[in-house]
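Worked problem 6 (solution included).
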Amino acid sequence: MEPIIVEAVGTVVGGRAEAFDDDWNTEEALIRLDGTRFGPGSVAGLDAFSHLEVLFQFHRVDPSDVHTAARRPRGNPEWPEVGIFAQRGKNRPNRLGVSRCRLLAVEGLDLRVRGLDAIDGSPVLDVKPYMAEFGPQGETVQPAWATELMRAYY
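Solution. The predicted structure is:
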């Protein structure tokens, strides 16, 4: 496969300094867009949306720590071993995270958000407004362990 080159569009500023699970909805941070590449027109109309979808990199995960084999999420012995593509852990190929968060304000090229589960300094690769029509169509299904894992995440 050909390599894909992606340049960050911005950086997470503030919020948590370290990644740890749960209570992300209490966190507020900025997504500071790159002012050398983007101007006010890049965010025109964004303030009409309540939520964003943010693609970011888990920049502190060492590539040698990437897991591809099955493992128990959070090391919980009560949960089944599942592959990396059946979980949302940070130690994954390409070290990419996707988060939906509340947009609190657009302040120039700073997007003030709550509930972004990325840490201070995370490179932001893309920002999109969340539109309900891009959400799942029809019923969604997930295993009980996933519901238990996410109980206190936000």
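Discussion: The CA atoms of residues 73 and 149 lie 8 Å apart.
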